[in-house]
Design brief:
alpha+beta; 4-stranded antiparallel β-sheet; 5 helices; 13 strands
């Protein structure tokens, strides 16, 4: 008997807050990506699941926290075999998406959703950023360079970095050597600075 390889996915719509869900099956993904949209608000909050040439699964999810879109490349083992697996916002580390067995993943999503609701309620009463629009514009520019593999560290070992958001800045940190690079997020000139960069290299040192 052939076992069907499938996984359910749940995440919060960044526009209306409803739960967006879908089920991806390996055979179907080999024919076409699975497109995910909100059935409640009908607005554009698309996510997708696709099969890469390498055999890995690419999950693209719009983020309710940073308003960007995060791409995760997962092995088939993680995507199809885990009972419940959580994906986080790359900028803040906040859990935003769950995949796995439908019942287990749904239960985990409900826990995550409660936490997301708390965060969103706090954001309505507190000024998290000096200028939210500038912060997210600069964050999007950094994420674009990262997706184009133009974000690295001079230590030569790290292939990614941690992104930490503060009230008036974004700090990139190398997970291997702890080198840091900070970008201000308070003025239109700060946007010009980041958008003029062709590449970002953290000032790390080789061991």
């Amino acid at each position: 008997m052939i076992t069907k390889m499938e996984s359910a996915l749940f995440y919060k719509c960044p526009i209306c807050g409803a739960c967006i869900s879908g089920t991806a099956e390996l055979f179907a993904l080999s024919s076409a990506p699975l497109q995910l949209t909100c059935s409640v608000c009908k607005e554009s909050a698309p996510g997708s699941i696709s099969l890469r040439a390498s055999g890995d699964i690419r999950v693209s999810i719009p983020c309710v926290i940073c308003e960007g879109t995060h791409q995760h490349n997962l092995s088939r083992g993680i995507f199809f075999d885990r009972n419940s697996f959580v994906l986080a916002c790359g900028a803040t580390g906040v859990d935003i998406c769950v995949l796995g067995n439908p019942d287990a993943a749904r239960a985990t999503y409900e826990e995550i959703d409660a936490h997301l609701e708390d965060i969103m309620e706090e954001s309505e009463t507190e000024d998290f950023f000096h200028d939210q629009s500038i912060t997210f514009t600069i964050l999007a520019a950094i994420q674009l360079l990262a997706e184009e593999q133009k974000l690295s560290c001079a230590c030569g070992t790290a292939k990614t970095c941690k992104i930490n958001l503060a009230y008036d800045s974004i700090t990139l940190t190398c997970p291997d050597c702890d080198a840091r690079l900070m970008f201000l997020t308070t003025s239109p000139e700060d946007i010009d600075t980041i958008e003029a960069l062709k590449e970002i290299i953290l000032p790390g040192t080789q061991a």
